[in-house]
Design brief:
Blueprint lengths: L5 E3 L8 E4 L2 H7 L9 E8 L6 E4 L6 E8 L1 E6 L2 E6 L2 E5 L5 E5 L6 E8 L3 H7 L8 E3 L3 H15 L5 H20 L10 H15 L7 H7 L4 H12 L3 H19 L4 H7 L5 H12 L11
Antiparallel strand pairs: 1-4, 2-3, 3-10, 4-9, 5-8, 5-10, 6-7, 6-9, 8-11
Helix pairs in contact: 3-4, 6-7, 8-9
């Protein structure tokens, strides 16, 4: 993050990934074909970023894309404020004050990209982005999440010319997919989505509860198939898989704080069998619960 940013817990969340392209590499990329047209400078993702808050009084020197996959947040820019929900892409222009934060009751899962380049403005114009219309809704955020994974994969290959070219072209494809899946502003009904967000907030508040698909769907006043399809479209996973993820994230937080042992953390998130919990934790998190105790 840039030094002029005054940020309160901008990072350090479970499941976080972050890649920063060194400034000298960015300067060199600005002289080459393809990368001079569209160049990523920072790329990352947060999963369920509770407490995420960023304020930059003078903005940044790059454009910023924040893609909300699930949950919700909001953004202030100038004297206006925008709500950001699942399936929304938020674009922030360079050198303009902004504030953005996760919703405290249903914190967002986001991926974000800082970028620059001679054709950056053309890509934004193609999406109809402006300082008064910074939010672009899409009908299938899962497609963009897949495109993001393809993009960040190139960042893991180092910062050679080939890797940076792959990074730029993959990002251009992501922006193209945003256009393909863009829906007209005001045309998308938020009713079912809002009900989904409320249910997700209920799940997050009471992860230990033995939720069933039928109960979750009933809380949202939707049929189980409709609820499942909506949840999968907005979060990239079915409801009960999302519940497992929420439980394990809560358990990781409890373990890192050091107030719970493995068995206690397991019970706190709804698992009476600590051995089953440990296997599940290892499978989804990639670490043993005991290795997460007393801090990351």
């Amino acid at each position: 993050m840039e030094p002029q940013a005054r940020e309160q817990r901008p990072e350090g969340f479970p499941g976080q990934r972050l890649v920063v392209v060194p400034p000298a590499i960015v300067v060199a990329a600005g002289r080459r074909p393809v990368t001079r047209d569209l160049c990523i400078t920072h790329i990352g993702t947060f999963a369920a970023a509770a407490g995420h808050f960023v304020e930059r009084p003078h903005g940044t020197s790059q454009h910023i894309l924040i893609a909300c996959i699930s949950g919700a947040g909001d953004c202030e820019m100038g004297d206006r404020k925008w709500k950001v929900g699942a399936g929304d892409l938020l674009f922030l222009p360079p050198r303009e004050r902004h504030v953005y934060r996760a919703n405290p009751f249903s914190p967002w899962m986001i991926f974000w990209i800082h970028f620059r380049g001679a054709q950056a403005g053309d890509h934004l114009a193609n999406l109809g982005v402006s300082s008064t219309r910074p939010v672009v809704p899409v009908d299938d955020p899962g497609v963009l999440l897949d495109a993001f994974e393809d993009t960040i994969r190139h960042a893991n290959h180092g910062f050679g010319e080939a890797a940076l070219t792959g990074l730029s072209t993959a990002f251009a494809r992501l922006l193209g997919l945003a256009k393909v899946h863009q829906v007209a502003v005001g045309s998308r009904s938020r009713n079912a989505e809002n009900r989904l967000l409320k249910v997700l907030a209920m799940m997050r508040e009471d992860v230990a509860r033995p939720w069933t698909l039928e109960e979750l769907a009933r809380q949202a006043n939707l049929s189980p198939p409709h609820f499942t399809a909506l949840c999968r479209r907005q979060t990239g996973m079915p409801p009960l898989s999302l519940l497992i993820r929420l439980r394990l994230q809560r358990a990781m937080d409890l373990l890192q704080r050091g107030n719970h042992n493995v068995a206690e953390a397991a019970r706190a998130v709804g698992y009476e069998d600590p051995f089953y919990f440990s296997r599940l934790f290892k499978k989804h998190i990639g670490l043993t619960p005991s290795s997460c105790m007393h801090g990351p």
